[in-house]
Amino acid sequence: MKKNEKHLSPDDPFPVMERMTVKLVREYLEKKHSIIVPIGIIEQHGYHLPLKTDALIAEGIGRLIGNRTGILVAPVIYSSYSGGGLPGTINISPAVMSLVISDTLLSLVSQGFRNFYLFLCHGGSENNRALDIALKLLLRTNPAFAGVMIALMPVWKLGAKQDGWRKAIREHDWHAGWLETSMVMALAPDWVRMQDLALDPEPWLSMQVEHPDNYQHAEKIVDDAMVVARQGQRPEIKVGVMGHPESASPELGRRIIEDIVRDAAKRIMEIEAKADGVYKEVSWIPEPVMLT
Fold first, then answer.
1. Each residue of 34-51: pLDDT tens digit?
2. pTM, to two decimals
3. Beta partners for residue 232, in sequence order
4. What CATH number is given to the structural domain containing 94?
5. What is the rounded average pLDDT for all residues in the chain?
6. Contact 32/71 with Cβ under 8 angstroms?
7. Of 25, 58, 129, 200, which is least surrounded by CB within 10 A?
8. Mean pLDDT of 262-270
9. Sign of dihedral through CA atoms 225, 228, 230, 231?
10. Is residue 9 scored above 70 in pLDDT?
11. If we measure between CA atoms, which residue out of 246, 119, 248, 241 comes closest to residue 179?
12. Facing residues of 77 across strands?
């Protein structure tokens, strides 16, 4: 058992918030005011992985981090924007996603939670930009968050080993490739359907591997720089794998997960030791104003 890891009996619901009762959460808040909030989505992950892949990773690894740190883990948030359009994908607009997460945090703040660790496991570019802006505005405009700390912890920024996210990013294994497939193999092996593994044909596969947003195309009524483009998923893409899932294995998934849990727990405990509820000025360089 790790240093900070809580020993749980089989019938102990902690750290899973939805399994706990009002009494148990109240008792937790008498001792701690921190909470891990996993964020995922329901979206296309090829023919071999479940639609819940991102949420499954957020939920499963989030609970492991909670167990190791002794911090409560909120129910996973599914309301996110994918941008994909294959069957089963549920798109919530980035604006609505921002409101859902903001209201979730506000509800938890009203109960006494003060330190939030948002464990982000969905990497959509539009989603991430909207979430970043929403959190900054929440802290800036809502007095209820005067002494509240929010840490945004994307899963792809966690872990020290070179065979995890860093290796996957170097190899352009963006989505439903060996990385995510390995993790789902480790977390929920019965949910993986390698017998149904399929890839989009060329050149669409290589385009998606080259850049994760290449699954989209842009259209304009008039091709002028000042005309806003309409973007959407390329109709030629039917599978949506951006990587090489054939290289996946449950053993690799377990190593990647342990690496993420170890790094996340270490970072959280370091932050917890310094979180005093007082905002202090830090270095900040505004982005340049683009007028040209």
1. 999 999 999 999 999 999
2. 0.92
3. 217
4. 3.40.50.10310
5. 93
6. yes
7. 129
8. 97
9. positive
10. no
11. 248
12. 39
Length of the chain: 292
Residue 40 lies in a domain: yes
Q: Contact 53/176 with Cβ under 8 angstroms?
A: yes
* Full residue range of the structural domain in which residue 89 is found: 17-173+250-274
Phi, psi for residue 154 in degrees, rounded to 5? -65, 135
In a domain, 22, yes or no: yes
Give the H/E segment covering residue 153. Answer: strand 149-154
Q: Is residue 194 included in any domain, yes or no? A: no
Query: For the chain, what is the domain count?
Result: 1
Q: Which letter does DSSP use for residue 286 in this model?
A: P
Both structure tokens of 155: 């899963």
SS (H, E, C) 59-82: HHHHHHHHHHHCCEECCCECCCCC
- Looking at residue 290, its pLDDT comes to 63
Q: What is the pLDDT of residues 32-91, one digit of tens each?
A: 999 999 999 999 999 999 999 999 999 999 999 999 999 999 999 999 999 999 999 999
Q: String of b and e for 41-60 (b: at least 16 CB within 10 Å)?
A: bbbbbbbbbbbbbbbbbbbb
H or E element, residue 115: strand 115-120
Better pLDDT: 111 or 8: 111
